[in-house]
């Protein structure tokens, strides 16, 4: 997708004498590093597939033989090591993040093995445990936002501030010290700072945060539309379904004819509506998750620190962010919760 869009931007910029804002984006989407990264990862995957195809015996020959199973494992590890030599050609700017993502993903898969494997399961199966773990990772992120923003990557921190409608100075003046900007909390002797007007100008905390929830819900829908609709829009199966649904609606095909998957009880146009409706619901759920993490947490902070504590200790911030994050996790599916946890774990 990045390659096609980058090619479109280059052709557009070549055809226009005047350099437009759209053509400036080609420097972001159409760079040699992205092709180098894609080529390295794709070649590594292809190398592993080729090696395992020629080196490994068939499944029927090693299914009941423990010695051959161990041999298969050793050959797979050897294939992985050889395939990963292509990672040497990944640009250095990508390497640290890739290694971090792979490490976090490997830890998650290892825990999954020790939790669900019939022979190796030693960990307890706690219902909805991904919600507790996900809320914990978001709580660490909340600690960084309110008390220690220096733990974040600079670009990721700017992204959080932008979508949270805050500035570094606003949060620092309310939750941290004005005398020592590097201090995570206010120093002894410094006065308590109200949320109005430092944090927000509206005298009503409830009105301010509700308006932000409504605004950012629609803003995040555009961002999550790419996440949820992108895989669907590049799937040939989806366009075959659209074509079949159109034919049914125009009565160019027998209504009783089965679809390609052998499902004769559901018509194609009904299936299309179900697929699109599921994705739209997923976009709305992700949007609610995002605004709940951002603004519901801030709403609780406003009332708790003003009416109860009159202070901002770190334990209070962590507790409030954990509660808000746990409630936000309720909007997402278990798979998406795990994805958020893996992503956040690599940003801190």
- In terms of DSSP E residues, the strand content is under 5%
Query: Stretches where pLDDT falls below 50 for ≥5 residues?
Result: 255-264
Number of strands: 0
Distance separating the two termini: 28 Å
Largest sheet data: none
Indicate the multimeric state: single chain
Q: Could you give the order of the helices and strands? A: HHHHHHHHHHHHHHHH
Q: What is the molecular shape?
A: globular
Number of helices: 16
Helix content: over 70%
Radius of gyration over C-alpha positions, nearest whole angstrom = 26 Å
Mean pLDDT: 80
Task: Describe the SSE topology.
Layout: H1 2-15, H2 21-24, H3 26-29, H4 32-55, H5 59-62, H6 66-83, H7 92-116, H8 129-146, H9 154-163, H10 168-175, H11 195-198, H12 205-233, H13 236-249, H14 268-309, H15 314-329, H16 334-345
